[in-house]
């Protein structure tokens, strides 16, 4: 499958016409259950994870695995808020998310929401005999279901799916790169400072009590539009607290 000619040379894949172009690295996030699994379940899940990692490596995809950074068994010293912030940012900045639907997980469910809200494509992996919640298969947006009977079959299926998805992922990468600018956050800070308000005062001036805190506002002011990915409801509360319209923040 060839890429459209309007894509920049840096994004085009190498081929007979342009063999010197280096394949661009993509980033993926591996979402799965980690909390509450027994040793046998963890071993099986990690075997599947290793297969996913091997396939990703063949396709020049850097796979982020939370089990190696914020595992609830081996990384208990990582603060809860840091786990949330790290995993959310990793999901949003990924080119696609791989979800292992082998065991129910509230954490992985959160990661699916992060991906859906940021329009991050989702690959759902499940054994043929696994029943998957319709809250997962019903997610609107780019979602692909990969069923398998054996680990060897999973490797082949995943290899095919990622290969076919790669051109679309590159197009998406180019489209979202503009969101790496900090436009909304910078505008919030400028309006807040014009009014002589502290972040705490802005947080306390919302209509919804506890809608966000001063520390959260600090992050929004400093981070890119893509990482913030602010909902309309939050933008409405920020605008109200600052005495402006949502349009003034955009």
UniProtKB/TrEMBL annotation:
What the entry lists under InterPro entries is as follows: Cro/C1-type_HTH, Lambda_DNA-bd_dom_sf
Q: Which GO terms describe its molecular function?
A: DNA binding
In what residue span(s) does the HTH cro/C1-type domain sit?
188-249
The residue range of the signal peptide is none
What is this protein identified as? Transcriptional regulator, XRE family
- From what organism does this protein derive? Streptomyces griseoaurantiacus M045
The taxonomy runs: Bacteria, Bacillati, Actinomycetota, Actinomycetes, Kitasatosporales
């Amino acid at each position: 499958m060839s890429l459209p000619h309007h894509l920049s040379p840096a994004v085009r894949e190498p081929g007979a016409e342009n063999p010197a172009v280096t394949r661009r690295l993509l980033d993926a996030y591996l979402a799965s259950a980690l909390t509450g699994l027994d040793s046998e379940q963890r071993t099986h899940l990690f075997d599947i994870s290793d297969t996913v990692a091997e396939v990703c490596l063949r396709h020049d995809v850097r796979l982020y695995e939370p089990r190696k950074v914020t595992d609830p068994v081996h990384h208990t010293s990582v603060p809860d808020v840091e786990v949330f912030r790290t995993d959310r940012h990793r999901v949003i900045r990924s080119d696609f998310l791989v979800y292992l639907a082998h065991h129910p997980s509230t954490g992985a469910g959160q990661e699916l929401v992060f991906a859906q809200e940021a329009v991050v494509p989702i690959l759902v992996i499940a054994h043929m005999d696994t029943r998957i919640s319709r809250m997962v298969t019903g997610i609107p947006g780019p979602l692909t279901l990969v069923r398998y009977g054996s680990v060897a079959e999973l490797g082949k299926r995943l290899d095919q799916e990622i290969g076919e998805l790669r051109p679309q992922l590159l197009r998406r990468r180019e489209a979202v790169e503009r969101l790496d600018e900090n436009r909304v956050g910078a505008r919030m800070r400028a309006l807040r400072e014009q009014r002589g308000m502290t972040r705490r005062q802005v947080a306390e001036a919302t209509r919804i009590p506890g809608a966000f805190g001063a520390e959260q506002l600090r992050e929004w002011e400093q981070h890119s539009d893509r990482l913030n990915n602010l909902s309309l409801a939050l933008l409405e509360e920020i605008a109200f607290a600052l005495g402006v319209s949502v349009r003034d923040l955009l």
